[in-house]
Amino acid sequence: MFGGIISILIAIWFYREAESKKAPAFQWAFVGFITYYLPNLIWTFWVAKPTVIKLHAQNAGLSATLIGHSGILLGLVCAGLIWLQVLRKLKSPEAQ
């Protein structure tokens, strides 16, 4: 649930940022969505889920919860890096 809400917020963030720079806003919204969701899903299914299963077997609920939500942080970091390295540096057509 948190991941879906955050992915929508990131898509809106990328959309508005691209729109302010006169870049194709829908494409950048999609890029924002994918750069958040893809690393999140890969991390969740390949790393977090197997680890959470082991932790539940050991009754380590808090650790399992933190690791289960770690994909959200990874997705945020990836989307932030794409914004920092690419989208933020885009120049609007008037500036060129």
Would you mind describing this structure in some detail?
The chain has helices at residues 2-20, 25-57, 61-68, 70-87. The chain has 96 residues and is mostly helical. It has one domain (2-91). Helix 1 packs antiparallel against helix 2, helix 1 packs parallel to helix 4 (70-87) and helix 2 runs antiparallel to helix 4 (70-87).
Q: What gyration radius follows from the Cα positions, in whole Å?
A: 17 Å
State the oligomer. single chain
The domain count comes to 1
Hey, roughly how much beta strand do the residues contain? under 5%
Treating each run of at least 4 consecutive H or I residues as one helix, how many helices?
4
Q: Distance between termini?
A: 41 Å
Overall structural class, as computed from helix and strand content, comes to: mainly alpha
Average pLDDT = 87
Order of helices and strands: HHHH
Unreliable stretches (pLDDT < 50, length at least 5) are none
Main beta sheet, described? none
Provide the helix percentage: over 70%
Short description:
The chain is 81% helix and 0% strand.
What characteristics describe this protein?
single chain; about 100 residues; mainly alpha; 4 helices; about 80% helix; elongated
List the helices and strands and how they pair.
Elements: H1 2-20, H2 25-57, H3 61-68, H4 70-87
Helix pairs in contact: 1-2, 1-4, 2-3, 2-4
